Amino acid sequence: MLAACGTGRGAPVDPRRYEAFFLWPGVKAPDWLDEAGEVYVLAGEVRHRAGRGFVPLRATPRVSGPALWCVVRVERLDWEEGVYLAVLRTLALWEQAGNRLVGLQVDFDAATRGLGRYAEFLADLRRRLPRRWKLSITGLMDWSAGGDAAALAGLGATVDEIVVQTYQGRRTIPGYEVYLTALARLG
After folding, report:
1. Residue with more model confidence, 38 or 1
2. Which Pfam families match (predicted)?
3. Do 136 and 162 form a contact (C-beta atoms < 8 A)?
4. How far is Cα 7 from Cα 174, in angstroms, rounded to an integer?
5. CB–CB of 76/50 below 8 Å?
6. 48-62, 95-109, 122-136 — which is least confidently predicted?
7. Which of 17, 45, 80, 122 would be 73's cystine partner, CB 3.0–4.6 Å?
8. Pair 142, 112: CB distance under 8 Å
9. What is the rounded CA–CA span in Å between residue 137 and residue 155?
10. Which pLDDT band, with edges at 50, 70 and 90, does 4 fall under?
């Protein structure tokens, strides 16, 4: 994965210059990752097909170094009660294992026109999530250009952070700085 960080236009990215990382299931963490500030760890998925529930993708980690975010990749927002319970149980298990658990990150590609519904879902999730855990989401750059201001404000009032995806596939999107500048107006 790190080999793909070379852009062909200069030196490869030195990951040790950064503090936060995302870790996919099945990828062996490099030794230096223990020195990271935070690691976003993909724990499971809520897939498109209803009734599938929460699908775990890894065992409960036991990490003494960095703080952890439990990441759930989400393909649908119509969660049954069992999905909420499974996600909350996973968070509790991660914390009970001795990890410094920051909270939950929802990785969902919310369409810009669907931000109102997404904000409602997140507000409900936030009510269910114990206050000791933060709520993070991934965000798309085009929210800055076409996102409804009220829906975006709803997101901002609900989540603790938005990690904006500045890539498509394995490449950084050219000119991503313009989108980030536009997002800054949202506060």
Report:
1. 38
2. DUF3142
3. yes
4. 12
5. yes
6. 48-62
7. 45
8. yes
9. 9
10. very low
Q: How far apart are the C-alpha atoms of 174 and 152, rounded to whole Å?
A: 24
**What is the SS3 string spanning 87-150?**
HHHHHHHHHHCCCCEEEEEEECCCCHHHHHHHHHHHHHHHHHCCCCCEEEEEEECCHHHHCCHH
pLDDT in tens, 74-124: 999 999 999 999 999 999 999 999 999 999 999 999 888 888 899 999 999
Q: Give the C-alpha distances (Å, rounded to integers) separating 136 from 3, 69, 171.
A: 28, 9, 23
Contact by Cβ (8 Å): 136, 161: yes
Mean pLDDT, rounded, of the chain:
87
- Inter-axis angle of helices 115-128 and 149-158, to 10 degrees? 20
Whether 3 shows a pLDDT value over 50: the answer reads no
Token pair of 105, please?
A: 């990150």
Q: List, in order, residues 6 or more apart from 16 with CB less than 8 Å away.
A: 32, 35
DSSP, res 174: T
CA distances from 103 to 32, 61, 78, 89, 116 (A): 22, 14, 21, 12, 23
